[in-house]
Amino acid sequence: MSIFTTRSKLSNKEIVYFISINEHLKKCVKLLYKDNYSAIEAMILQMQGEKRDAEDVFRYSLSKVIWLIQEKYIDDKADIKTYIYTLSRCLWVSTLKKKNNYTYYTSDSYHKNYDPQLLENLPFKEDDLFFHRQFSNAYSKCKPITFENLKSIDKLSRYWNTISSNLSKLSV
User: Fold this and answer.
1) Residue 132 domain-assigned?
2) pLDDT digits 0-9 by tens, 23-65
3) Helical (H) or strand (E) element with 163
4) Do 115 and 103 meet the contact criterion of CB atoms below 8 Å apart?
5) Around 142, how many Cα atoms within 13 Å sit in the side-chain half-sphere?
6) Considering its fold, how many domains does the chain have in total?
7) Is the model more confident about 67 or about 141?
8) Is position 47 within any domain?
9) Does the residue 136 lie in any domain?
10) Full residue range of the structural domain in which residue 43 is found
11) Domain assignment present for 166
12) What percent of the chain is modeled with pLDDT above 90?
């Protein structure tokens, strides 16, 4: 198929097709690189990575996506750009967690090992940092739901139901 000589862009469907039948892999990889690498690099640089990190993460994510396509885990309806970005982000977050300097972007940063001092050195906009601090303060006052709490919630629910049913009888 001489589709590459007539145009430089391919649709997701065409890229998935060529990769799944192992044809024009080199050209498909070049197109995927050209379309996706800059976004991955920007994301990793924004999250305190380096250009070398971006290259490694992108290379791994791209090879993983190609493998997923060849194994028929990704069909032609999928957006490859989303797969590459998501895999890259997950891989980079995992790397940062291992380095123990990633707390802002994950929900599991709010646990007993949470160190708010790490945030002070990260390049965030002021409003992001403000909301993060507000959430951290509110979260620190929260208590986990236990069986006893559920009992009292059940009591409260029953009480509210009786009150609301009585209110409907009182209204004229």
Assistant:
1) no
2) 888 888 898 999 899 999 999 998 888 999 999 999 999 888 8
3) helix 147-170
4) yes
5) 11
6) 1
7) 67
8) yes
9) no
10) 1-102
11) no
12) 12
Q: Give the mean pLDDT of the chain.
A: 75
**Residues 106-120 pLDDT 10s:** 444 444 455 555 555
Cβ atoms within 10 Å of 24's Cβ, excluding its own: 19
Q: How far apart are CA 56 and CA 40, in angstroms?
A: 11
CB 65 within 8 Å of CB 87: yes
Count helices and strands in the chain by DSSP H and E runs: 8, 0
Residues 47, 103: Cα–Cα separation, whole Å: 11
Contact present, 64 and 87 (Cβ < 8 Å): yes
Q: Which long-range contacts (CB under 8 A, 24 or more apart) does 63-70 make?
A: 65/32, 66/19, 66/25, 66/29, 69/16, 69/19, 69/20, 70/19, 70/20, 70/22
The sign of the torsion formed by the CA atoms of 96, 99, 103, 107 equals: positive
Residue 81 has pLDDT above 50, yes or no: yes
Mean pLDDT over 74-82 rounds to 82
**CA 103, CA 18: separation in Å to the nearest integer?**
40
Q: Which pLDDT does position 74 carry in this prediction?
A: 80
The tokens describing 147, both together, are 């069986």
State the pLDDT at residue 55.
Answer: 92
The single residue listed with the structure tokens 């951290």 is 136
What would the two tokens of residue 72 be?
């028929």
